[in-house]
Structure formats: C-alpha cells, structure tokens
Amino acid sequence: GIKDFGTQNICLLLKLIHRLDCSEISAWGLWVRQHTNLATLKGDLQGNHWDLLRSILPLYQAQTTVSIKDGSATSFWSDVWHMDEALADRFSAIFSHCVHKEDSVREALVSDLADAFVPRLSNQAAAELQEIRCIITQTTLSQGNDQWKSPFDCGRGKLDSAIYRLLKVRQHAAD
Questions:
Q1: pTM of structure
Q2: Is the Cβ–Cβ distance between 105 and 112 less than 8 Å?
Q3: How far apart are CA 102 and CA 161, in angstroms?
Q4: Can you say whether the dihedral through the CA atoms of 112, 125, 68, 145 is positive or negative?
Q5: Cβ(88)–Cβ(71) under 8 Å?
Q6: What mean pLDDT value characterizes the chain?
Q7: What is the 3-state secondary structure (H, E, C) of 105-127?
Q8: Sites in the chain below the pLDDT cut of 70
Q9: pLDDT digits over 59-106, tens only?
Q10: CA of 159: how far to CAs of 11, 22, 51, 59, 69, in Å?
C-alpha cells in the first residue's frame, strides 16, 4: 500500500500542467500564462521545478487532445489538436526537416510555415508538406483560450488519480 514517490511526483506535476492549461479557473494558471509560453513551458519562469515540468510535457501531450481557439498555447507539432495524433508523429519526414519545432499553432498558421524547414526537402517530406498546408488552410482561429481534454479529466481542471495506476502498469510492463 506504499506509493512510489517518483511516480506520485510525476502525477502531481501532470496535474500542475493540466491546471495551467485550464488556467481560466486557476489564478496561478492565469499568472503563469502571462510569464510563459504554454505550448513549450518556456519563458520568464526558471528553476528546477520548471525544468521538471518541461521534461514531462511530452507525457502530458500524449494523454490530452486540444480544441483550438486562438492557437497560441498549443504546440503545432507536439500537441494532439488535429485528428487523433500529433503532427510530428503523423508527418515524421517533414518534421525531421523542421527548424521551428516549438511553434504554436498560431505561429504556424500566421507564418504559413514559411522558412520553417531546411532548404532541400526529401520527396516524402515535400509530399507531407503539401498535406500540412491543407491542414493549415482548413484551420481557423477564434477568440478564447485553447481547451485541453484528457480521459483522466474529472472536471474543474483536475486529473483523476487513475493516472497513477496507469503509470505504474506502464512501468511494470517496461521492466
């Protein structure tokens, strides 16, 4: 019945990230939103705690989907905002040619990905770029904050403790 403190800490950090993404109900989240880019967790806030949050951001992105509003807090490549897979995973060839891997959806749409890639693309990367451009033309931004959804969301910006059990099962499978 003793919890694994390492796994418990990861769960608590995932809950903090989720609270940031649901910042409209958290005064702390609203404050952080003013000092950091939520798509990357980079900005004015420094320290070991923020380094830990940044290190588990991919885990959070893998278990959430985003409904785009203004697109400024959502990672174009790493968040799941179009269909059911991150664009970096779905279009790995063009992503490998990308030099702007941390762009938000807003940044990618406004720039139309101009100058986002190395000059010479492979044939597969060029074909994937055409698909990405179609996604961009079909995406419209609106007013408001992007909305994160998780199968572990239990409302009001809180994550269910089932995340702990999932991480423990995953950890045992890896052993």
A1: 0.88
A2: no
A3: 30
A4: negative
A5: no
A6: 90
A7: HHHHHHHCCCCCECCCCCHHHHH
A8: 23-25
A9: 999 999 999 999 999 999 999 999 999 999 999 999 999 999 999 999
A10: 9, 11, 21, 14, 22
